[in-house]
Amino acid sequence: MDNFSRIPQIKTLTETHLAGLSLQMCLAQNQTSQLWQNFMPAYKQHNIWANNFLYSVEEYDENYFKNFSTNNFFTKWAAAPLQTGAIMPPGFTALILPQGLYAVFNYKGLASQAAPMYNYIFNQWLPNSGYLLDARPHFALMGQAYKNNSQDSEEEIWVPVKG
Fold first, then answer.
1. DSSP labels for the chain?
2. pLDDT digits 0-9 by tens, 43-88
3. Which residues of 123-133 are buried (b: 16+ CB within 10 A; e: fewer)?
4. For residue 139, what pLDDT is reported?
5. How much is the pTM?
6. Is residue 66 part of a domain?
7. Separation of alpha carbons 161 and 154, rounded Å
8. Which of 57, 67, 81, 114 could form a disulfide with 77 if both were Cys (CB 3.0 to 4.6 A apart)?
């Protein structure tokens, strides 16, 4: 049995303002753990967050998926929404997720075991969905059911699409 939903919910994201840290990386030299290790101490130190949701965001250039290679670079963010009027922690940068349509897949399990889900999304679901991949950020939304490095961890995978 799969540990992800094969039929996504199609949702419209309203413009979302985040604050976080980013790194340029490629899948062949993935630095996601390092990014989150740098983000979490400052996140926990400041009581300025709008809610308990964490965003793991990827910004890809327009040719990233056309000429896919694990050596292609992209920008990865560890981020969270600030309370209105809150001052960003030192070293953090603002990130705006623009409004748009997303295919939202539920995933349960270890992040290190998510490759079959991404393979399904991009090689099976998307080509047969009637949607096209949109050039906006992709992200994982991690809420209260997210448990780092646990088989029981749950998160939502948001893939930008257009009709």
1. --SB-SSPEEEEEPPEEEEEEEEEEETTB--HHHHHHHHHHHHHH---BSSS-EEEEEE--TTTTTT--TT-EEEEEEEEPBPTTPPPPTT-EEEEE--EEEEEEEEES-GGG-HHHHHHIIIIIHHHHS-EE-SS-EEEEE-TT--TT-TT-EEEEEEEEE-
2. 999 999 999 999 999 999 988 988 888 899 999 999 999 999 999 9
3. eebbeebebeb
4. 98
5. 0.93
6. yes
7. 22
8. 57
- Enter the tokens of residue 30: 């993935």
Give the residue from 147, 7, 130, 137 showing the smallest Cα distance to 62.
137
3-state helix/strand/coil string of 50-81: CCCCEEEEEECCCCCCCCCCCCCEEEEEEEEC
Domains: count for the chain: 1
Residue 35 lies in a domain: yes
Give the CA-trace dihedral at 106, 132, 63, 137, to 10 degrees: -40
Q: Looking at the domain assignment, is residue 22 inside a domain?
A: yes
Confirm whether 2 is domain-assigned.
no
Is residue 85 left, alpha or beta, with left meaning phi > 0 and alpha meaning psi from -120 to 50?
left
Give the domain CATH number at 27: 3.20.80.10
Q: Which domain holds residue 35?
A: 9-162
Question: Quick one: how far is CA 20 from the chain centroid?
Answer: 13
